[in-house]
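Predict the assembly for these two chains.
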Amino acid sequence: MKRRVAIAGCPNAGKTSLFNQLTGAKQKVGNWPGQTVEQFSGEFEVATEGFEIVDLPGCYGLVAVSAEEAIAATYLAEERPEVVVTVADASNLTGSLHLVAQIAELGLQQVVALNMVDVAERRGIEIDEQRLGATLGVEVVRTVARRGLGTEDVKRAIGRAAGATAQQLVIDYGPVAERHIGGLLENIVTRPEMTAIGAPRWTALQLLAGDTGTRDRIAALAGCDDVLVATATARDDISAETGYEAEMVLAERRFEWIARLVASMTGSVEPGLLWSDRMDRVLTNRFLGIPAFIAVMWLVLRVTADVTAPYLDWVDATMAGPVSRWAVDLLGLVGADGGWIESLVVDGVLAGVGAVLVFVPVLFALYLMLALLEDSGYMSRAAAVMDRAMRAVGIPGKAFLPMMVGFGCTVPAIYATRTLDSSRDRLLTGLLTPFMSCGARLPVYILLAAVFFADAKGSVVFSMYLLGIGVAVFIGFLLSKTALREDDPTPFVMVLPEFRLPNARTVWVLVRQRTGSFIKGAGTTILLASMAVWLLLALPVSGDGGFADTEIESSAFGAVSKGVAPILDPLGFGEWEQAGSLLSGFVAKEVVVSTVAQLYSVDEAESDQYAIGFFDDLKDVGTSFVEASADTLRAIPAVVGLDFIDLDDSTPTALQAAVRTSFETGSGGRGRLAALGFMVFVLLYTPCMAAVAAFRQEFGTRWMWISVLGQFAIAWLGAFLVFQGGKLVGLG
Amino acid sequence: MTLAATTRDSRVRVLRVAARPRLMQRLAMLGIVPGVLLTVVKPHGPAIVSLGGARIAIGRGALQSLEVEAVDE
C-alpha cells in the first residue's frame, strides 16, 4: 500500500503549483466522501518508495467556516495522513503560519514548504528556516514552486518525515483559556471514542473555538452530548471572564505566539505600499471598480463566443460530413451499412458525440480566460467589487461571473459556480444561470423575430436577454427570501493575492482538468440522451413504416409530441410540430430550428458534398481546420468591437412561410403573440441535456429535478402570461 | 471608530471584533484579532488593509464589526 501524504496551504500560497510539480501528470480526480467538491490526488516516488498525495482545499485554518476548511479539517483529523506538506507564503509568513501551527497542534508529522522565497527576498524579508523548523518541530524547505525550485528537496523531506514520530505543538493560551481547556480534556481523555477523532487537546481547542465540524462529529457519537454542554458553558465562561469571545481569545494568543516567532527571525518588517496596492486603489475604486469589471467580463464573453465560433462550425461540419461518411464506409466493409445500424451510428452515436465535441472549443476558451483571471489575482477583486450590489438581492458578488458566462453557454456557467464559497451560494447561482440566454437560443429568436417582428427584430431579440436577467434577479430574490435563506450571511472578507503575471503551467493544468472533467461527466449523459431521441424517432407506433424507416409523425417521437401538445395549447403553440421542436430543444437548443425545418418537411439549403474519397475528406478536414484557425485570428480584433447581436437573415423563406402558417393556425389567428410566447418559453425552459447533466454532477439528482421542473413551470407561466395576457388586452 | 473613518496609509489598532459566529471565525483565522496593527490601503468601497504582508478586502457589511483606533508612529 502506498504511503499517504496530504498537501495543505492557504489559497494563493502556491499549493497547486507545488502539487503539480510533485506529481507531474500523474493526477486523478475524484470527489471528497459525501461531497460534490472535487478531490485531486496524485503519486510520486522518493527513493523507489511510492507515495500518494491528496490536494486539500486551500484554507487559512482548521475551523470550519466555509466548505473548504470543513473538508480539510475533517480529512486531517480523521484520515491522519502520514505526512502533511504545508505550503507557507514566505512573503506573508504571519498569515501562513496560522495553518502550520494548527496542523502542528493536531499532532501530525509536517513538512513546511516555505514558498515564494524569491518574492520575500525582493521585499527584504530574510527568514531563518532552521530556527523556524526547530521552534515548530518540523522540517522547513525553501521553494519557488512556480519555477519548480525546491521540489526535490520537498520530496526528500517527505521521505525523512514519513515514519518519524510527530511532535505535538503546545501553545500557551493564557490562564483563563487553559483552565477551561483542562476541564474539557478531563472529559475527553477518558473516552476512547472521543480520542479516536483527533488528539484530545486539539479536539478541546476546536470545541472552544466553536468549530461546527468538530461539534457535529461529536454530536454523531453516542453518549457524548455532555461534552457539548460542557463546551457551551466553558465558552460562555471565557467570554464572561475575559470580555472577548472564546474564538477571539484563542486566535489572539495563537497570533501573538506567531508574531513573536516571526519577529525573532525577521525583525518586524512591515512592507510598504506595493504596485499591486496602487492597482487595487483603481480596480476596486467605488466608481471605477464596476466599469472595469464589466469591461473584463465583456472581453471574456467575446473571446468565448466569437473566437471559438469558427472551431465550433468546424467540429460540427467534420462530424456531420467526413466522420459520418467514414463511419458508413466502415460499416460497409463489414456489411452493416444501410439499415438501422447505420442510422443508429450516424444519427444516434455520432450526432451525440458531435453534440459533446462542439462544446469543447467554447469550454476550452472560457476555461482559459477564467484561469488567466484567477491566476493573475483579478478574480478576487471582481468578487469584492460586485459583492455589494448583488448582495442587495441575496446573490453573492462572486455569482456575477458564472452568470456572465451563461450568456455564452450554460454548461460552463454551471461549472463556474465552483469558484463560489458556500454550497448555498453555489446552488443558488446554479439555479439562476440557466435564465441567462445562451448562444444556442439566439437562432430561435432570430427565426421567429424575422417572421413576425420584421420591423423590430433587434429590439425583440434584445428584450429576451433583458427578460432573462430580470427573471434571474427576481427568482434569486425569491429564493434568498425562502428556500435558500441565509441564516448567517457572512459579510465579505477575503485575502487578495498580489497581482502577478499568470503562470503558463498553472493555467494549462487548470484548463486541462476542467475541460476533461466536462468531456467525461456531461459527455456520457448527452450521448445517452441523443441515442434515446434517435430511438424515439426510429420506433414506428402507427402507419406502415418499419424500424428506423418511419415518418416522424408516425414515430414514437411524433406520438410523444402529440401527447405533450395539449399542455402547450393554452400558450398558443399547441401544434404537435411545435411541441416536437421544443422536445428536441430539451436535448440541445441548437436543434430547435433544424427540427422545425425537418418537421415541416422544408429542406434547408444542403451543403455541397463533392468530396467522396477518404483522402479528399481528410484534406477537407485539414483545410477547414486551417480556415477555422484563420477565422479565429480574424475574430480577435472584433472582440473589442460592439456588434453584439449579429442578426443573420439567411433563413429560407419556405421555412418562414411554414412557420407563419403554423403559428397562425395554432393560436387562432394570433401568430405574433404565440411567437412571442414561444420565444419566452425557449428562453426560460431547460437549456439542454448538457446543462442538466452538468447541474446533476454539481448539485445532485434531487436539485436537478427541482431545477428542471421549476424552469418548465416558469417557462409555461411566462408564455401563458404573454399569450393570454396579450389576448386579454387585445394585442396580436 | 470603523475603518471607513480612517485615511489611506494610516496605521490602526483593532480594539474590538464583534460579529456573528462565521464572520468572527473568519476574521480570527486571518489574524484580525484585538490588539493587532493594520495598515489601511484604502478605507472603503471595499476597504483593503495590510496585515503582515497580506492584503485583506473587507466589505461594507463587515466594517461595522471592527472597532479600530488610529496609531501614531
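Residues 504-538 of chain A form the longest helix (35 residues). Chain A touches chain B through 56 residues (CB under 8 Å).
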